[in-house]
TrEMBL record:
InterPro entries: Aldose_1/G6P_1-epimerase, G6P_1-epimerase, Gal_mutarotase_sf_dom, GH-type_carb-bd. It comes from the Eukaryota. The gene is LOC109725547. Substrate binds at R66, Q84, R89. One of its GO terms (molecular function) is glucose-6-phosphate 1-epimerase activity. Belongs to the glucose-6-phosphate 1-epimerase family. The keyword Isomerase applies. It comes from Ananas comosus. This is glucose-6-phosphate 1-epimerase.
Length: 308
């Protein structure tokens, strides 16, 4: 009806008829979450898209959606014998209608709770029972928060361990004008050099060629500065000590079927992760990993001087 406000939470159909949940807040802020993968595919402030999703992304199981925020669980990359980045990103999640309460009550109306549990088939691949609860919240100011709660529900006293990442693809206007701050002087494993350990020398991470690094024991707060757009993404994380920075650059971009040849210019992945020290859960134990992101506009270089 005319003048009627769109609902804060709406379940509808997305690309290829896949189920998605749309979250809405004031000032044209929104987020979209696909049940396929428990995958955030859009985050907008003032109607402007802040996440990158490839024009060639395949919204069709079993391929994970290229872009947005894929969830890497229970394995990051090939750190183990499972498929690359684990299976959570290509499983069908469900809406969790009765999630256990959170310690703090959210003031937001725009959130959704999803749940993933293993099927009989899944247990053959990774023989562990778990409940993975994901809450995606769009805050009243347009900020985006993802909270993962993973519980070991094994009944035979079995502990399990896993690695994890929120594999976030941020949209940037020009990768050569982007800096990632907060990682300077830290140690990293370079995926392009057999995961050898180095120490970051620059005063920020900048991009002139392919970058694929796992920074270790990183601070809770990181920032991505997009000079051309004059905006900064401020990221906060909790329970996730590591941070992956990835841009495939031209050669690898061309080799990916679901990624445009020039799209590397408009994205950067800064991933909140737990990789170096896998998370270990005894039966009935629960782990929480939180990731929060907001965007600021700046008008001069001085405006972002105090971020990190
Ligand atoms: C990053 C890894 O997290 O994900 C890269 O560090 C990898 O090595 C990239 O290439 C993309 O992975 P995928 O499986 O989505 O193509």
């Amino acid at each position: 009806m005319e003048g009627e406000k769109a609902p804060a939470v709406e379940v509808c159909k997305g690309v290829n008829g896949l189920d998605k949940v749309v979250l809405r807040e004031a000032r044209d802020c929104s987020a979209e979450v696909y049940l396929y993968g428990g995958h955030v595919t859009s985050w907008k402030n003032d109607g402007e898209e802040l996440l990158f999703v490839s024009n060639k992304a395949i919204f069709k199981p079993p391929k994970a959606i290229r872009g947005g925020i894929p969830i890497c669980f229970p394995q990051f990359s090939n750190f183990g014998s499972l498929e690359q980045h684990g299976f959570a990103r290509n499983k069908q999640w469900s809406i969790d209608t009765d999630p256990p309460p959170f310690p703090t009550v959210t003031s937001s109306r725009a959130f959704v709770d999803l749940i993933l549990k293993p099927s009989e088939e899944d247990l053959k691949i990774w023989p562990n029972s778990y409940e993975f609860r994901l809450r995606v919240t769009l805050g009243p100011g347009g900020d985006l928060m993802l909270t993962s709660r993973i519980r070991n529900t094994n009944t035979e006293g079995k502990t399990f361990s896993f690695t994890f990442a929120y594999h976030t693809y941020f949209f940037v206007s020009d990768i050569s004008e982007v800096r990632v701050e907060g990682l300077e002087t830290l140690d990293y494993l370079d995926n392009l050099q057999e995961r050898k350990r180095f120490t970051e020398q620059g005063d920020a991470v900048v991009f002139e060629s392919e970058v694929d690094k796992i920074y270790l024991s990183t601070p809770a707060k990181l920032a991505i500065l997009d000079h051309e757009k004059k905006r900064t993404f401020v990221l906060r994380k909790d329970g996730l000590p590591d941070a992956v920075v990835w841009n495939p650059w031209d050669k690898k971009a061309k080799a990916m079927a679901d990624f445009g040849d020039d799209e590397y210019k408009h994205m950067v992945c800064v991933e909140a992760a737990a990789i170096e020290k896998p998370i270990e859960l005894k039966p009935n134990e629960e782990w929480t990993g939180r990731y929060f992101s907001l965007v600021w506009s700046f008008t001069s270089d001085m405006d972002h001087a105090c971020i990190c």
